[in-house]
Amino acid sequence: MVRKIQLLDATLRDGGQGLEDLHKNSFSDKIFSEELKHNIIESLGNSNVDIIEIGTMGPSVDDKSKFAIYQNVEELSKYLPKIRNPKALYAGLYIGPDTDVNKIPNWNPSLVEGIRVILRYSELQKSLDYCAALSAKGYKVFVQPMLTMRYTDAELDMVIQAANKMKAFACYFVDSYGYMQPKDVKRLFDYYDSRLDKDIKIGFHAHNNMNLAYSNVQYFIDIESDRDIIVDSCATGMGQGAGNLQTELIVPYLNKNFGKVYDYDSILDICDVLDKDMIPNDLWGYSVSRLLPAVYTTAYKYGLMMRNKYHLSFRDMNKVFSLMPDDLRMRYTAENLSKVLKVLENNE
Asked: By C-alpha distance, which of 97, 103, 91, 92 is closest to 118?
């Protein structure tokens, strides 16, 4: 059996969530114009990327469509191109299990076929039940345990058993804060591979806080197994925190080494627009501010706020991270940040 390697581009989804986060904290006013959203989706279709994630879904009192975040699957699916690449799977992501599942229509060809769901760690069973309900409605469901490194073996077993029962399309491990090492990739892959039903794909979503996304993904691809896998990427690496594996980096690697025929020029067309309108503002990518939280296995938003709002030196940031109580590391809130900064004051 020859394993299948699929590439999922999440430029609009992860990039859009990154832009929203920057906007909320007054770090950027960049948005996706309607023209840009359609152009990115069209270019991704032309590129022959296997899975195209066209945005995020989640109920909100605000209109977040300028970040490719929509209220429901019907609104998101309006961005499906009139002429679709018949070989591509078009998908969207639910931020969590917040939309009343009874209001989500059964899948039909006017809607995205793939739905990814971020599992809410504090509501794990509810999230898994939500995934199962979407699978029963006919969607190809991707089970996404964000920040997978925080999951115990018992919790991973819970996720895997649920994925098997619902016959999920894919089950992921996710390096949300960008501190996974190759040994972590191997451990999680082997754990999934030995327990997931053989027809469920294993996906890997890498972030770039320690500049390891590309090497970690290469390692993931090279693990010997018959398992079909999915690799996530974004054009120019656009995404939350330090961003993701760059689509323009992984495409030639897959074309050269694994017989893929992705159209590189179509990917570069997306990069061209983003490079002109976004990247000069340092909205994502490697930085020391994004590295330091990863060194201490901590939520990246702490670093962004310490540096850009409170203007701490890297030396002081390092001290804060080294003294931070472990129970505050996994979840950034303004209140948690205040507690963290008091740690610095009390140790000066």
From this structure: 97
